[in-house]
Amino acid sequence: MFGMSSTLGMSTDLIMDIKFKYQGCTLENLEAVALMKAAKAPQPFEVDLGKLIDIKVIDSQKLFKLSVEQQNPALANLAFKLATTEKKEFKVVVKAPTSVKVSKKQELVTKTQAVDIVDYLNRKSCYRNAGATLLLHFCTTTESRAIRDIAVEFANKCLSEYKIDPRSVVFRGFTKTKTGLLEPIETHSAVVRRDSFHVCPLYIALRAGLTYCDNNGLLSIRQQYSNGSHSENASAKADLMRRMFYTFKLTGKGNEVKETWGDMEAYLVKFFNSRHV
Q: pTM of the prediction?
């Protein structure tokens, strides 16, 4: 079916207006459809937003910050995608057997010392740095972890061991089971999206922290897929879903940062105790 729309929307509060032009004339939606069909133009056509958006104004770090402020997981996913895509563009160029040219980013990762990373994460109090600290604290060089299981472990420690303020944002996106443990609130029709796990501050902080750790060579990351839902009461449709997620371990450099930083827990408790819903 041949079709075109001048408004694109993911929800009622996020709409993108598009105007079609041809030889200086502004076209109505139906006129644009008729013209594309008559010309047998290839479908779908692409719109490169990079030509419309200044990357200096909107980069991956700023998108992560906006995703926390607006509680928008789509921005967090896009920020992570941009960050990992940018990383792949850096290459090592060999000009001669004895001469190797390294990108500035790779050079930064190599030269940044463990003590400098600890100092930076301590100096700037934000969700990304808290997320990076969480990953370093709970990861090892041998066991693969994922954002979800680290979030669950930390939230339950905050409840039982760290005695975090009940008003803390760390508990948002979780519900208490009959056994008294916290588990993530899954997204479904009966749940308001802003209350679900995948838009909660802890999840977004971990996603942002994962990008920081990846960019600084602190984690070895693998892309994985899971089938079905985590919920026991999931619908038949949810059980057929296939999700992409990441598992990771500490690199040697990440482990060095972890061993250098002696009071990670104190930093995390202070951070989440000071941020309330």
A: 0.61
